[in-house]
Design brief:
The protein has 172 residues and is of the alpha/beta class. It contains six helices and six strands; from the N terminus they run ααβαβαβαβαββ.
Length: 172
């Protein structure tokens, strides 16, 4: 899929604060992540999309946060910083080069910091052929619990919490 076509697809997403369903969806990741955070920590929404809703919600929770998205907020300032926490919701499945993109994302996490990732995992009982998640043309990388644990080992991350479709890592 070409960059323009991919960006056009992302613009179709309805990421609106007035949509309680969307806000509740984000809190599936935020709730366990907030348990790992302390006062004064600064974060990054890695892959925030056209509207950095997560940034706004985290501000309301009392945290300073930047947004980065290669299509909509490609500021290089955020890419030079290290953060106390990085949150990536429904992003890793879009990684065309997973090794490079995971490396970029993990590099933004300060030593001792938190990386929180939400994506629909392919659980053992899911038939890949009929799985709705794979039918989105922008979804090109798929993960299982085993894959997420491998990623933790490879990038020297500690898995500190697991919720349905959410993995929270700590960078050692």
């Amino acid at each position: 899929m070409e960059k323009f076509e991919e960006q056009s697809q992302y613009k179709l997403h309805q990421n609106d604060k007035r949509d309680p369903g969307y806000v509740n969806f984000l809190y599936k990741c935020l709730t366990p992540t907030l348990k790992q955070l302390g006062p004064g920590m600064k974060g990054l929404d890695f892959g925030c999309g056209p509207y950095p809703m997560l940034v706004e919600l985290m501000h309301e929770e009392g945290f300073e946060m930047d947004g980065f998205d290669p299509y909509f907020f490609p500021s290089t300032h955020e890419l030079e910083d290290k953060y106390d926490f990085v949150i990536s919701t429904e992003v890793v499945e879009h990684f065309n080069d997973p090794h490079l993109s995971w490396n970029d994302m993990v590099a933004k996490v300060a030593k001792g910091g938190i990386l929180s990732v939400m994506t629909s995992l392919r659980y053992e009982n899911i038939d890949f052929k009929s799985w709705h998640y794979r039918h989105d043309k922008t979804h090109v990388s798929f993960y299982s619990e085993k894959t997420m644990n491998w990623i933790a080992d490879f990038f020297k991350l500690e898995v500190v919490a697991i919720e349905k479709n959410v993995f929270i890592f700590k960078k050692s």
